[in-house]
From TrEMBL:
GO terms for molecular function: ubiquitin protein ligase activity. Residues 28-382 form the RCC1-like domain. Keywords: Repeat. Transmembrane segments: none annotated. This is RCC1-like domain-containing protein. InterPro entries: RCC1-like_dom (IPR058923), RCC1/BLIP-II (IPR009091), Reg_chr_condens (IPR000408), Ub-ligase/GTPase-reg (IPR051709). GO terms for cellular component: cytoplasm. One of its GO terms (biological process) is protein ubiquitination. The keyword Phosphoprotein does not apply. RCC repeats lie at residues 26-76, 140-194, 195-250, 292-329, 330-387.
């Protein structure tokens, strides 16, 4: 799944990682689930080791991932690049090709370009859910595409599929702009410049706040009704599979929705001061502090919670059931459910689950010859960027 924060207030997000501006000699690698070409490596087999691809963005990349599709873009660029499943138009392209392994599915290979409808606009943010995508442009317009049988597109109950970019009417409200947008399996959250949070999609577990009696889905953007303390000012948002989470600048946390994995009852009772990254997987919530410590709670049945021997991190990226970290030592670490190779090559003893410190090496790069500069994690997919 994916989310993006615009460069306004400082806080971080989950399953999209912003990659810092660097010289053009970067190298991008992907690994993990690839049955529909979502890794952009020109075949449809899972990759258990970081595999190099040649991204079209020269610098300042962002990567956002959906269920089986991926976008790469630079903040302020007029072009985004899509790869992977396009069955419902979630890559916002009309044409696609068939993978030889499964003629019933439609994919785009390598990368297809996506440009804003307005010729003067630039892409500011992209977020992705299971089979849908949401785009924010510099002219303050928000677009959606893909499949939305439970309101995921935000286009109303009569529009459950959009095979190309379709603008969401009257959003954001006049006088506001999008600060952060996060999408997960079936719902989207948007933090606006006035501090209010809007959302749409599946809300039957309470992940979209208090709904009217009998209401399950929000079909168009609506301000969430949240039972928050009066002085709680939201500065960061995160979305799990069936829950939503909010954090204030001083580290107070509020969680709504399903508590199947204890994301509400197990949250820290005290404020988490000095937080840098606030993110969610499908069943767990993660915080990276400025000291490099990772706090996490929720589902840990497959190693999703950080191992006790994890070293301090500089950056954190959270996927559906796994996570990546760049250590202060410059190394790449992975933990969680790695059944598709998204945690790298594992030993027989590890099986598909990583519960302890696990370094992921990049074959073909000599130790000390590169710097890991950015990471992103999605639905059993992983991305690493080096200079």
């Amino acid at each position: 799944m994916g989310d993006t924060q615009l460069p306004l207030p400082s806080s971080s997000m989950g399953r999209v990682s912003q990659l810092s501006h660097s010289p053009s000699n970067y190298r991008l690698f992907s690994f993990g689930s690839n049955s529909l070409g979502q890794l952009g490596i020109c075949h449809v087999e899972d990759a258990h080791t970081p595999t190099e691809l040649f991204p079209p963005c020269p610098s300042g990349m962002n990567i956002t991932t959906g269920g089986n599709h991926t976008f790469i873009f630079s903040n302020g660029s007029n072009v985004a690049y899509a790869t992977g499943d396009n069955t419902f138009g979630q890559c916002s392209v009309a044409s696609s090709i068939k993978p030889s392994s499964d003629s019933s599915q439609s994919i785009t290979t390598k990368f297809t370009t996506i440009v804003p409808p307005s010729p003067t606009a630039r892409w500011q943010a992209i977020s992705s859910g299971w089979q849908f995508s949401i785009f924010v442009s510099s002219d303050n317009a928000v677009y959606s595409c893909g499949n939305g049988p439970r309101g995921e597109l935000g286009l109303g109950s009569s529009a459950t599929t959009a095979r190309s970019l379709t603008q969401i009417p009257s959003f954001p409200p006049p006088g506001t702009t999008v600060v952060q947008i996060v999408s997960t399996v079936e719902h989207t959250l948007v933090l606006l410049s006035n501090g209010h949070v809007y959302g749409w999609g599946n809300g039957r577990k309470g992940q979209l706040g208090l709904l009217e009696t009998g209401e399950k889905y929000i079909w168009e953007p609506a301000e969430l009704r949240l039972d928050l303390p009066e002085d709680f000012e939201i500065t960061g948002i995160a979305a799990g599979r069936e829950f939503s989470a909010f954090i204030s600048a001083d580290g107070e946390i509020h969680v709504i929705g399903s508590d199947k994995w204890g994301v509400k009852k197990s949250k820290p009772s005290n404020k988490v001061s000095g937080w840098r990254t606030f993110a969610a997987g499908w069943g767990a919530i993660y915080i990276l502090t400025i000291e490099g410590k990772v706090l996490a709670w929720g589902r840990g049945t497959h190693g999703q919670l950080p191992p006790n021997d994890l070293p301090p991190l500089e950056k954190l990226a959270v996927g559906s059931e796994h996570a990546l970290g760049i250590g202060l030592d410059g190394k790449l670490y992975a933990w969680g459910w790695g059944e598709h190779g998204n945690c790298g090559t594992l030993s027989k003893e590890q099986g598909e689950v990583v519960r302890w410190k696990h370094e992921v090496s990049i074959d073909g790069l000599a130790e000390g010859s590169y710097r890991i500069d950015g990471i992103a994690a999605g639905c059993a997919t992983s991305w690493v960027w080096t200079t």
